[in-house]
Amino acid sequence: MAKILFNHVYKRYGKFKEVAVNDFNLQVEDGEFLVFVGPSGCGKSTTLRMLAGLEDISDGEIYIGDALVNDYSPKERDISMVFQNYALYPNLTVYENIAFGLRLRKLPKHEIDLSVKRAARVLEIDNFLDRKPRELSGGQRQRVALGRAIVRKPQAFLYDEPLSNLDARLRVQMRAEIISLHRKMEVTSIYVTHDQVEAMTMGDRVVVMNKGVIQQVDTPELVYNRPNNIFVANFIGNPPMNFIPGKLLEDGEDVDFHTNRFALRLTDKHAAQLRKHQLVGKTVILGIRAEHMSFESYELEQHSRSLITGVLEFGEFVGSDRYYHLEIGMDSLLIARAHTRYQFNNGMKVSVALDMEKALFYHRDTEILLTD
Ligand SMILES: Nc1ncnc2c1ncn2[C@@H]1O[C@H](COP(=O)(O)OP(=O)(O)OP(=O)(O)O)[C@@H](O)[C@H]1O
């Protein structure tokens, strides 16, 4: 077990030195479960592979514990990796697959036997030890791949999209199993996924990446509630955050947010914040999540300065709630959430109250969150 440090790490590929990972700086704490998340091609696998020693580093330093590992072989780094395609040996039995790494390390036979059986018991694959991988289901194969990783206690576990090949139900189950294993073993872990739900449910902290650059490193709650920039706000959360561009205008002591359709009164806190950034008179982007836009009528009166009206295009049923797409005469639709006990019809003209306490403001050009 160890902490891991990335210090100004770069990866450039090919003749044109295209940057796949750009000035990556991060400290992973000892025993932490950290998730890298981002769209396809954002550099998350490359970063993980550089840490594992499967890919050279173009620039920078990687430390595992106190050791600078840039020139260490994968084996010397003492890391276990779990891959998306399981990477099992087809000709070996489940037992031999799990034992493989221990044999390479020349551990005594009885010790290997104990470790393999313990791992197999934990993962409930002890009945399949004599089978070959082709005689197993996808979920069972992924368990064997996990077994191979947890059979010993390395400095760190690295997971590269290990659940992508499983069906939705099995994914949820394996997610829980991986986290429960992590709680028991407390080995520093980095988990790569493009699935934001996986990232949010599993990570102690989440690293959101785009185009080789870290966008935000925070707890799932902070990444969801206070996305650093519009990219993160769009990527995390389903549906994504709503964005409304508008101009800030002074009204005596107050500041209002104006579009050509409606005006909203800012909270004192937001007004002070945006004044400090000298943005009064300028255009900013208001970000608000669907659950902070409500249809309930009693709230409408209380929030008369936070109402917008529009036409309901359609609703999406998601169990206890329905997401309504609302046309407010701008380029994009807004999405508001309502409990299914409320029924609205397509084409209805409605008023929606925005919970302005929960609104976030982003700079129009940099798309960065405006904070205190
Ligand atoms: N061997 C390689 N040669 C050249 N370019 C590469 C190589 N491997 C990866 N890349 C490029 O580096 C960038 C990052 O790739 P990487 O696989 O790390 O992304 P990722 O975020 O893991 O994506 P995915 O979720 O699709 O696996 C991509 O633009 C990819 O095309």
UniProtKB/TrEMBL annotation:
Domain ABC transporter per the UniProt entry, residue ranges: 4-236
Top-level taxon in the UniProt lineage: Bacteria
Any single biological process term in GO: carbohydrate transport
Molecular function per GO: ABC-type transporter activity; ATP binding; ATP hydrolysis activity
UniProt keyword terms in alphabetical order: ATP-binding, Nucleotide-binding, Transport
Pfam families xrefs: ABC_tran, OB_MalK
InterPro entries per UniProt: AAA+_ATPase, ABC_transporter-like_ATP-bd, ABC_transporter-like_CS, ABC_transpr_MalK-like, ABC_transpr_MalK/UgpC-like, Mo/tungstate-bd_C_term_dom, NA-bd_OB-fold, OB_MalK-like
Cross-referenced SUPFAM superfamilies: MOP-like, P-loop containing nucleoside triphosphate hydrolases
GO cellular component terms, semicolon-separated: ATP-binding cassette (ABC) transporter complex, substrate-binding subunit-containing
Protein name: Sugar ABC transporter ATP-binding protein
Species in which this protein is naturally found: Paenibacillus nasutitermitis
